[in-house]
């Protein structure tokens, strides 16, 4: 097992939380203020991440076992973006953002569904002043429009990407502008339309609202390409 400092000291992975997220285990830190312990990472996951960095070319990661790696819930490449839709919501409507965190501590709560729907509607109206959305159907119709433009949000091979659950918040996007909200909605539209693979273990049939309640902090990762 390797610590974050040991991984950084190897000189290949510059940002451990962005690349590997939480550790595979937590060892006692020896300091009273550290209640979570020292994050420790399996050496084989670190070595794989380093190998992928070395094989990064033209915006793509390559590996002969790409399909297997893409199916893992644990990330091994630097995230394209890490975001929590509630972060911008807190800037727009602090009271509503509090409603979405109050019922946690874990899992899905039906009580949060109307709050999550209202949150997305408010994000959409904030991102585009010409909108006046008021219903989930209207929001999803808007998502269908967004999905078309969202395919060009980043350079190819985007939107060949994967959404995973993120644990650590150090690398979370901190944008609060309408443009930042618009980008998050674009990405969510691609997830909803199945153009970004979903590895958050949400039960079928896929429900975007449940996804956001169960996993408000999400990361978008590169899809590894198979070496031919």
Structural commentary:
This protein is of the alpha/beta class. Helices cover 43% and strands 13% of the residues. It folds into 2 domains: 2-54, no CATH class; 81-223, no CATH class. The strands form 3 sheets. A 4-stranded mixed sheet has the order 5-8-6-7. It contains 10 helices and 9 strands. The mean pLDDT is 90. Helix 5 crosses helix 7 (113-127), helix 6 runs antiparallel to helix 7 (113-127) and helix 7 crosses helix 9. The longest helix is centred in the middle third of the chain and has 15 residues, at 113-127. The radius of gyration is 18 Å and the shape is globular.
What characteristics describe this protein?
3-stranded antiparallel beta sheet, 228 residues, alpha/beta, 4-stranded mixed beta sheet
Can you summarize this structure?
The protein is α/β, with parallel strands linked by helices and 228 residues long. It has two domains: 2-54, no CATH class; 81-223, no CATH class.
């Amino acid at each position: 097992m390797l610590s974050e400092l040991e991984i950084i000291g190897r000189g290949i992975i510059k940002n451990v939380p962005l690349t590997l997220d939480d550790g595979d285990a937590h060892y006692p830190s020896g300091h009273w203020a550290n209640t979570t312990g020292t994050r420790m990472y399996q050496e084989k996951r670190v070595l794989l991440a380093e190998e992928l960095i070395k094989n990064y070319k033209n915006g793509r990661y390559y590996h002969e076992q790409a399909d297997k790696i893409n199916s893992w819930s644990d990330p091994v490449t630097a995230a394209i973006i890490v975001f929590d839709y509630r972060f911008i919501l807190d800037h727009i409507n602090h009271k509503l953002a509090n409603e979405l965190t109050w019922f946690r501590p874990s899992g899905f709560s039906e009580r949060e569904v109307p709050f999550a729907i209202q949150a997305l509607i408010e994000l959409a109206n904030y991102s585009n002043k010409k909108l006046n959305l008021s219903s989930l159907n209207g929001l999803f119709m808007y998502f269908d429009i967004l999905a078309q433009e969202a395919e060009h949000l980043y350079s190819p091979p985007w939107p060949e990407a994967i959404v995973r659950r993120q644990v650590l918040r150090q690398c979370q996007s901190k944008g609060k502008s309408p443009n930042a909200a618009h980008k998050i909605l674009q990405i969510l539209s691609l997830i909803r339309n199945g153009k970004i693979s979903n590895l958050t273990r949400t039960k079928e049939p896929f429900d975007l609202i449940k996804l956001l309640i169960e996993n408000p902090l999400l990361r978008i990762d590169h899809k590894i390409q198979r070496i031919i």
